[in-house]
Amino acid sequence: MKTSEEPKFFKVSENVRSQKTVGVLGGFGPETTAEFYMSLIGKSRRLGDRYPKILINNIAVPFSLEEEAVKNAAGLEGFLPLLIEGVKLIEDKSDFIVLPCNTLHVFIDELRDASGKPVLSIIEETAKAVKSSGAKKVGLLASLKTFKSCLFDAKLAENGIEMIKPESRQQKRLSEIIHLILKGSKSNELKSEVVKIIGEMKNRGAENVILGCTDFQLLVKQEDSPLRLIDTMEVLAESVSRLVMGREPL
Fold first, then answer.
1. Is pLDDT of 25 > 90?
2. Does the fold of domain 123-231 match that of domain 14-121+236-244?
């Protein structure tokens, strides 16, 4: 028996159909992927009248591979097939792809070659953000592999920005701290260690400091730091939200 009111079906508006879909290569680590998702949601709400279209592929990273890469800056070649497989799973339904992990941008060229869609670089977007800040000297907190690979060096130098790195012992300790964060540790003692390194960078002339590992934002907040923080995860989320909400062309 038919009711007096027929069900209403809503048509998908052209605005939604034309909205870009971002493919996210997640899992490096999972908590940061979740934070990136929520940041992207929040930024997109401020820019438009609907939620963004996000497709996340949380890649199953072996714990042993993660530990070797983060603590010892070794074994990264094991990530590449995982990343390429991850790209292939989502590229058909994505307009562009992002990887919210600084260290694995050592493979940005390989990912761009493997993907049929544009791959946005967290390193390139961060360099733009540093330039916009007006700073001429910035500190960098990152994993040992990021330092060894000089991922930020050329991009910052192109914009006339001098980079201040921690001492070698501090670089190693930062990688150990990243590994502890990935295991769920966010103690005040760890935070104090990182803040102390930031303070030393300030004494060496740094005007801002780049959180060059997306996991650092889980430990250190702006109110903890004596310098302005340039959070690479937030920088990437801002760029992605502007693309998916149509505020900037892809």
1. yes
2. yes
